[in-house]
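HUMAN: Can I see a protein plus its fold?

ASSISTANT:
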Amino acid sequence: MELTEYTIGKEFAIPAGFSSSGIQAKYYKDGFWYKKNRDGYEGLAEQICSDVLSFTNIQDYVPYEACRINGVSGCRSRNFLNPDTETFTSFKTAYRYAYGRELSDRLYTLQNPKDRIKFTIDFIKDYSGLDCTEYLRTLLSFDMLVLNIDRHFHNMGLIKSDDGYRFAPIFDNGAALLSNMGIFHPDETIENNIELAVGKPF
């Protein structure tokens, strides 16, 4: 597969790209995000996941293009926000705004995933007026299909505009498809690697 090469100057670098697995090099230029691979073949996983979504009835997702960025493999995607009229608030940030604490810390005081999911649904309803049941069902079902091990409260979120809130599209699937070479070893069988894939964040 031949990848398009993009040369992005240092002035477009974003200081800290968030991932629950660590800092990832990112750039933002001309309405596109560029993300270098960090742990394996995340860029290719992003493109395959968005290709899979294009064959479903899910309309709200971010298409990714696997590419090379300054000589390093990665991916790029168009900004899903209108920067003039919209802002993104992750579930993590929303809970911090509301309570000054971490949502993940609160959830782990609850004993089972069902209660954690219900707490999240109730919180988002109180915060935004939206019922996130179907949003979570879609995200978690897709993550199960592609074995995404890095769904967290920073890539689940709300978009706010003058019209109110709506849910963010599906994005950030780079840890899917056994792409993290620090966890999933090429010399292991696919079956053994699949056993290591644990769903998050509940």
Notes: The chain has six helices and nine strands. The longest helix spans residues 113-128. The longest strand covers residues 72-78.
